[in-house]
């Protein structure tokens, strides 16, 4: 009987977690979100370093000025949990993205119009946020592109498990390589 009760409690906790996640929302970031977003990016930088990706977001990237500019341009979004707390952020930007104009060691599967997902980060408080954000983006545009650092195994897995295909290598503004992905 104890074994059944333990399984029931675990199942009940899982249901509660799923129910909380269903009450989330995604909205455009606002200027008053800026400090919270910087906290999320700080957490994400530490998490990436701890999980074998210490070289992607270095020297305080993304800087506060960049994030503020993206908020004002209207392409920075936030995920809020059921309590209304901002727990994740990402940028969702209409292409073309100049860094995607040249691709090496592969090719884009199509030249259709696309949107780009950049700087997806969470505070680690809830599992499944990345999938929710990616699903939301795909519900807005049926062709998505993203890129990540070769050391970012977690993001590579997230993208591939969410239907993205690896397309080749692109170079970001500072000249470093990124693995490029597309979905749709």
Describe this structure in words.
The chain has 184 residues and is α+β, with helices and mostly antiparallel strands. The protein has a single domain, classed as 3-Layer(aba) Sandwich (Aminopeptidase). The chain is built from five helices and seven strands. Strands 1-2-3-4-5-7-6 form a seven-stranded mixed β-sheet, with helices on both faces. The radius of gyration is 18 Å and the shape is globular.
In sequence order, what are the helices and strands, one letter per element?
HEHHEEEHEHEE
Low-confidence stretches: 1-17
What order do the strands of the largest sheet run in, or round the barrel if closed?
A: 1-2-3-4-5-7-6
Decide which structural class fits the backbone: alpha+beta
Identify the CATH architecture. 3-Layer(aba) Sandwich
Query: How many extended strands?
Result: 7
Shape: globular
Q: How large is the share of residues in beta strands? A: 15-25%
- Supply the number of helical segments: 5
Question: In which range does the helix fraction lie?
Answer: 25-40%
State Rg.
18 Å
> How many domain modules?
1
The N- to C-terminal Cα distance equals 49 Å
Main attributes?
Aminopeptidase, seven-stranded mixed beta sheet, 184 residues, alpha+beta
């Amino acid at each position: 009987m104890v074994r059944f009760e333990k399984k029931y409690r675990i199942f009940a906790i899982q249901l509660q977690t799923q129910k909380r996640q269903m009450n989330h929302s995604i909205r455009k970031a606002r200027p008053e979100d800026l400090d919270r977003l910087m906290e999320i990016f700080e957490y994400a930088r530490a998490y990436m370093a701890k999980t074998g990706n210490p070289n992607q977001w270095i020297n305080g990237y993304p800087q506060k000025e960049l994030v503020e500019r993206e908020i004002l341009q209207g392409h920075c979004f936030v995920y809020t949990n059921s309590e209304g707390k901002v727990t994740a952020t990402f940028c969702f930007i209409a292409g073309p993205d100049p860094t995607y104009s040249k691709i090496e060691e592969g090719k884009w599967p199509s030249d259709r119009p696309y949107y780009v997902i950049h700087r997806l980060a969470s505070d680690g408080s809830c599992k499944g946020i990345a999938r929710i954000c990616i699903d939301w983006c795909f519900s807005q545009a049926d062709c998505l592109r993203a890129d990540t650092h070769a050391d970012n195994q977690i993001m590579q897995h997230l993208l591939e498990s969410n239907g993205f295909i690896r397309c080749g290598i692109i170079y970001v503004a500072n000249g470093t390589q990124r693995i490029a992905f597309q979905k749709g």
